[in-house]
Specification:
It contains 3 helices and 13 strands. With about 150 residues, it is mainly β. It has one domain. The strands form 2 sheets. Strands 1, 4, 5, 6, 7, 10, 11, 12 and 13 form a 9-stranded mixed sheet that branches. Strands 3-2-8-9 form a 4-stranded antiparallel sheet. The longest helix is centred in the first third of the chain and has 8 residues, at about 20-30. The radius of gyration is 15 Å and the shape is globular.
């Protein structure tokens, strides 16, 4: 499990974003292109902030999810740093249960799902780490499970 208060994303300039508001995101990483689209599941609109290697989605003003695909960003989970390109060794050491329960896709990528807790209570949010066939991290998704 990952405590929600321990989650941060830092860029190469060491600016940090802790999954807060769009204003907090822009304060940390600067302004970027924002696209708007209807959200049929949640209602209202999604506002998608796209940076090189990072996409952050808000439904109206509420954080929904973030996808990290660029090595210029570091993801902090329970005090440990993960980034794109890292080998799975650290993931296996820090999250052994999620690693043991990982799923393998037809293209040989592996998916690890780590639940997010709030005040030691499990939530419907998760961290999903994708590993390629060579066991390197290719994507880190953090968000709410609205299924």
């Amino acid at each position: 499990m990952v405590d929600n208060k321990s989650i941060q994303i830092k860029n190469g300039g060491n600016a940090a974003y802790a999954l807060g508001s769009a204003a907090q995101l822009q304060k940390a990483f600067g302004k970027t292109k924002i696209s708007k689209q209807n959200d049929e599941m949640l209602g209202g609109y999604d506002y998608i902030h796209k940076y090189k290697g990072l996409i952050v989605n808000f439904n109206e003003k509420e954080f929904e999810d973030v996808t990290v695909t660029g090595s210029q960003y570091q993801v902090y989970l329970n005090g440990q740093v993960f980034k794109i390109g890292d080998n799975d060794t650290k993931v296996k050491k820090v999250f052994p249960l999620a690693y043991a329960e990982r799923s393998t896709q037809p293209d040989h990528t592996r998916i690890l799902r780590i639940q997010i807790s709030h005040n030691k209570v499990m939530t419907d949010a998760a961290v999903v780490i994708t590993l390629n066939a060579k066991a390197a991290i290719t994507e880190i998704w953090i968000g709410n499970d609205n299924s």
